[in-house]
Amino acid sequence: xxxxxxxEEKIIKRLKELESDYNRGMxxxxxxxRQKRYLSKQLETLEVADRVRRLQGKQGSEKxxxxxxxxxxxxxxxxxxxxxEELLKKYSTKPLVEETTDKGILSSRTKIxxxxxxxxxxxxxxxxxxxxxxxxxxxxxSMVVNDTAFPLKNITNLTxxxxxxxxxxxxxxxxxxxxxxTRTSSSANNSTTK
Amino acid sequence: xxxxxxxxxxxxxVVTVSGCVNNQKNNQTNIYSQNGVSFEYPxxxxxxxxTSSYAVAAVADxxxxxxxxxxxxxxxxxxxxxxxxxxxxAYENNYANFFNQTGYQKVSEANITLNKTIIYxxxxxxxxxxxxxxxxxxxxxxxxxxxxxxxxxxxADFDKEQSNFDLIINSFRAL
Lengths: 194, 175
Prior knowledge:
The structure holds 2 protein chains of 2 kinds.
Chain A (H helix, E strand, L loop, with lengths): L1 H23 L4 H27 L9 H27 L2 H39 L11 E2 L15 H33 L1
Helix pairs in contact in A: 1-2, 2-3
Chain B lengths: L1 H19 L3 H5 E6 L2 E6 L3 E2 L1 E2 L4 E6 L4 E2 L2 E2 L2 E5 L9 H10 L7 E11 L2 E12 L2 E12 L2 E10 L7 H10 L1 E2 L1
Antiparallel strand pairs in B: 1-2, 2-13, 3-5, 5-8, 6-7, 8-12, 9-10, 10-11, 11-12
């Protein structure tokens, strides 16, 4: 009898430690639930044994109603947690989670591949474009052209032949007149000197 | 991943091709537009300084430059016309004694009527100290002005430069 009570207390103490460990983050949720389930079953077994003893008229552990109601609450809480776990297992299965993570990895990889391809394409295109642009050749200042479509001499005569001829004629005529005048004057001078 | 291969290849092709596409015509020709004249000339050619009389523009192939003078060039000249003179008279007067000069030899002469406009063309060679150059002088009248497009190259290169000369002659405009 003493053993049952002490064992129950030990188990309850252990449960409390377990919860405190879990709250501190020292235990994973799975470990916590597994250990709690195990301890709860042990506790339940002890309680059943205690009830049987009491029914048989033997002295059982005298515990208040509050104790039993707390026990019930704990039990319900444990059951709720277990149900939640089961629901999680049902609706968020591992393969689904893996698939989503895989997709995430793929999308990042794809992004990297796309960006690399775009960069490579851009560089190839730019390099090709640059290679197509002709390099600036010799500066214009260094090139001097002096060819002409016109004769090298008497360029001004090309379209003014008539006028030029006339000028020459008049010039010659003037010279002739001048010469005549000079001669005449010189002869006159000669005659005067004579 | 397999579904993405086609779009990725498509993107690569589009990006690469867009980087390589260019306007062929723009890359092959430049436009000269100064001194009242406008014409297209080969993209590799450059504008040259010209010391000839009546010259308003000159372009030359810089790859043919020797001692600062290009052997392949095109000069645009605009001679003054006296009252009553016309393209035909100017042309005939010019070549009346032109080939009396030493080393000058006529190759061909032609006149073409294009859109009721007569264009005179004279092809000749000049042998100067063993260096023989061939010339193609195209005489035309635009806006009551006479223009002479003088194309020249070494005799050996003259035929292969015809496409470049034609480009300039055909695109020539008086502004």
